[in-house]
Amino acid sequence: MTRNDDRVLLRALRRYAEIRGLAIRTHSHDWIVELTTPAGPHFVWGYDLGVNSATTARLITDKAATAEVLTAHDVPAVAHRLFLDPHRQPFIGEDGTWQRILDCHAAHDGDSVVKANEGTSGVDVHRVRSLDALEAAVHAVFARGQNVAIAPFLDISAEVRVYVASGHPVLMYRKDRPSVVGDGGRTVAQLCLAQADEPGVRAALAAGLRTVDPAYVPAAGETVALTWKHNLGLGSRLTRLHPDAQPQLAALAQAAARAVGARLVAVDVVEHDGRWQVLEMNNGAMFESAVGAGDLSFEAVCTVYSDALDRALGLGPTGGGADPR
Ligand SMILES: Nc1ncnc2c1ncn2[C@@H]1O[C@H](COP(=O)(O)OP(=O)(O)O)[C@@H](O)[C@H]1O
Ligand SMILES: [Mg+2]
After folding, report:
1. What is the reported pTM?
2. Radius of gyration of the chain from its Cα atoms, rounded to whole angstroms
3. Does the Cβ of 235 fall within 6 Å of ligand 1?
């Protein structure tokens, strides 16, 4: 666990403040950073650089709203249906939500992903394939006081994150889930134990290999992913891609950023059945585990942060220029 004062973000902001000659101080155990700019204080809250409007930030954080707005802008997105916490009964109506949740799950042929609508890091994201699992997952999310979003489960063949800053795809990487490759003899559990020194495999083992059959014997050369989620915090590894070499993905992410009016956003795009669509968007820009694992350089991260801040604050070589949006 990274201490707040040891965060990559904080180191990058201190360096940015020095280069731009801005005073910097922190609040709330280094969680809130204040930069003193000629126009007044600029705050960074957690990993939110404060460069998007407050409403765009909320929209990006709301998975169901993101999907709806993107679809309205003809940007392909995985549909997420929103179900409000039953404590908001007056907004739900007398019929409640349960029957509509059942209908939604049935419309997904009984294979859904239930998640906290405003969640992050893969927490409270559940694949459900039975009615009792559906009920347990929905209760778990509501119990934390969160709204529920339900999406069809997609067999994702690749997931890519694109950071778009002021209309430019500034950083792109593929997220590869921890996996083992079969030898035709050993079980998934045996293959995992043989690779237990790999952080991703260790994370999957610690999570109890819940989404694969540990007794399954993969054929020689067959790859078995150890989890269905692509979150880096859950063991996936990052492979950098060059946006110029992936024009289709860059264009999709740029269209998504434009549709929600975001200046800095992380767009997660997924490939399913040969078709790419937006799964979700993230308002914050967090690179702690990627830098810690050596997958991203501190320099690359500083560039993303300083470009976004320069443009938002009207500073630096790019700051005064026209916003390409
Ligand atoms: N509908 C879905 N079908 C298949 N996999 C999904 C679906 N929704 C989420 N996932 C997987 O779970 C991960 C976490 O879900 P996500 O919606 O990104 O929530 P979070 O904001 O917690 O990261 C994704 O990176 C993806 O790999
Ligand atoms: Mg995610």
Report:
1. 0.91
2. 21
3. no
Atom of ligand 1 at shortest range from CA of 112: 1
Q: In the chain, what are the domain boundaries? A: 79-153, 178-227
Q: How far is the CA of 275 from the centre of ligand 1 (A)?
A: 16
Give yes or no for residue 230 CB within 6 A of ligand 1: yes
Give the distance (Å) from ligand 1 centre to CA of residue 38: 41
pLDDT digits 0-9 by tens, 231-284: 988 889 899 999 999 999 999 999 999 999 999 999 999 999 999 999 999 998
Which atom of ligand 1 sits closest to the CA of residue 231? 25
227-266 b/e with 16+ CB inside 10 Å = b? bbbbbbebbbbbeebebeebeebbebbbbbbebbebbbbb
Q: May I ask the CATH architecture of the domain 79-153?
A: 2-Layer Sandwich (3.30)
C-beta 259 within 6 A of ligand 1: no
41-84: per-residue pLDDT in tens? 999 999 999 999 999 999 999 999 999 999 999 999 999 999 99
